[in-house]
Structures are given as structure tokens and as C-alpha cells.
């Protein structure tokens, strides 16, 4: 919780004028307090805006920086044709990424393992949608195992027809399993730990 000035008091502003900002070179687009202070100063300082106007050729880049953006829409890139540019140095966003594939600060990296898992699940769903299924029988139990791992079981004798055996309450599965060794075998073959 922040405490404002008490009622009846007038907050006295510091008479110290903050130093004008030197923005030659790269514009700091970071989220640090220092970078934000710089932007805020220039936003409210006519003198700084006059100076930077002469130093930064692209007024859109300056405007984007003052808004706290990291990318802006600027002049079309002669190499790739994109207009997306980095506020930091005005370079083409797409070409910059291509040119510095090892710059970790410019990359959003997806962990390899989760990417593989995601691709595998996508592949499993695709296979299941395409009708791929592994079917087998144990006694009078019929089983279908889908690429996603879903197990469907049928037993006409017991009038059991389940499209997703994992959704049957464990107590019920256990109850049937104690008198149906063939069902236990079905589950074992389907990869269940039973
Ligand atoms: Zn200034
Ligand atoms: Zn480019």
C-alpha cells in the first residue's frame, strides 16, 4: 500500500531538474526502472524531444519507444519486405532474428521435451481420427486400443460396452476384474499396470 500526502499538506516537489536524456545509439527498451524513467522524462520534456527528433530519423520509432513498445511498424525492409522493426536499433525484426539465431534474449525457446510430447500427442490424435486402432480379443472380451491410449472394451456376456475403460470407476474395474481374469489380461496387454 502506498501512502499519499496527508490531508492538509502540500507535497513539495524536488527542485532538482532531472538530467536530459542522451539517446544516441540504442534506445533502451528494457523494463528496468532506469529505462522507464528515461522514457518518462523524454515524454514530458520538450527539450529532449527536440534533441531526439534530430537524432532519430524515424519519428514512429521514437513514438513507439515513448509508448514502451519493443517493435514498431516502420520502413519496409529491402531484404525481406517486412515493415516490423525493432525499436531498440531500428533494425528489421525478422532479419534480426534470422541473423542472430543464438541470441537467447531474442528467442522464445520451447523446451524440446514438451515440444516432442506435443507433437507426439498431435500425431496420436491424428492417427485416432484416421481410424487407426489396435484390436484384440481375450476369451469373450474384445478390446480396442487407440493411438491416444484410450482403451475400449466389450463383453456381450456381461453387457459391458465401454468406449473409454479409464472412465469406469476403479472400484468397479476391480470388482469385475476379480472374477474376470480375461479382462485383467486385456488391461495388461493394453499397457495398464494390473
Ligand atoms: Zn529532457
Ligand atoms: Zn528484413
Write the layout of secondary structure elements.
Layout (H helix, E strand, L loop, with lengths): L32 H12 L1 H10 L3 H8 L4 E3 L10 E3 L6 H7 L12 H18 L4 E5 L2 E5 L5 E5 L4 E3 L7 H10 L1 H9 L5
Antiparallel strand pairs: 1-2, 3-4, 4-5, 5-6
Helix pairs in contact: 1-2, 6-7
The site of one zinc ion has 6 residues, from helix 2.
Word description of this protein:
Among the domains are: 33-103, no CATH class; 128-189. It contains 7 helices and 6 strands, in the order H-H-H-E-E-H-H-E-E-E-E-H-H. It has helices spanning 33-44, 46-55, 59-66, 93-99, 112-129, 170-179, 181-189, and strands at residues 71-73, 84-86, 134-138, 141-145, 151-155, 160-162. It has a 4-stranded antiparallel sheet, covered by helices on one side. Helix 6 (170-179) crosses helix 7. The radius of gyration is 32 Å and the shape is rod-shaped. The chain starts with 32 loop residues before the first helix and ends in a 5-residue tail after the last helix. Mean pLDDT is 80; it is low at 106-112. Bound molecules: zinc ion (2 copies). The site of one zinc ion has 6 residues, from helix 2.
Amino acid at each position: 500500500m502506498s501512502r499519499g500526502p496527508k490531508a492538509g499538506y502540500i507535497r513539495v516537489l524536488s527542485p532538482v531538474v532531472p538530467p536530459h536524456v542522451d539517446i544516441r545509439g540504442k534506445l533502451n527498451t528494457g523494463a528496468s526502472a532506469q529505462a522507464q524513467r528515461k522514457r518518462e522524462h523524454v515524454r514530458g520534456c520538450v527539450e529532449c524531444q527536440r534533441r531526439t527528433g534530430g537524432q532519430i530519423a524515424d519519428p514512429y520509432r521514437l513514438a513507439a519507444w515513448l509508448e514502451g513498445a519493443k517493435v514498431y511498424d516502420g520502413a519496409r525492409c529491402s531484404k525481406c519486405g517486412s515493415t516490423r522493426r525493432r525499436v531498440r536499433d531500428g533494425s528489421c525484426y525478422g532479419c534480426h532474428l534470422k541473423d542472430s539465431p543464438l541470441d537467447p534474449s531474442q528467442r522464445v525457446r520451447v523446451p524440446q521435451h514438451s515440444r516432442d510430447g506435443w507433437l507426439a500427442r498431435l500425431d496420436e490424435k491424428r492417427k485416432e481420427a484416421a481410424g487407426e486402432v489396435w484390436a484384440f480379443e481375450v476369451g469373450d472380451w474384445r478390446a480396442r486400443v487407440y493411438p491416444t491410449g484410450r482403451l475400449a472394451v466389450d463383453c456381450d456376456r456381461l453387457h459391458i460396452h465401454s468406449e473409454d475403460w479409464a472412465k469406469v470407476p476403479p472400484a468397479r474395474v476391480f470388482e469385475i476384474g476379480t472374477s474376470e481374469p480375461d479382462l485383467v489380461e486385456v488391461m495388461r496387454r493394453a499397457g495398464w499396470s494390473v
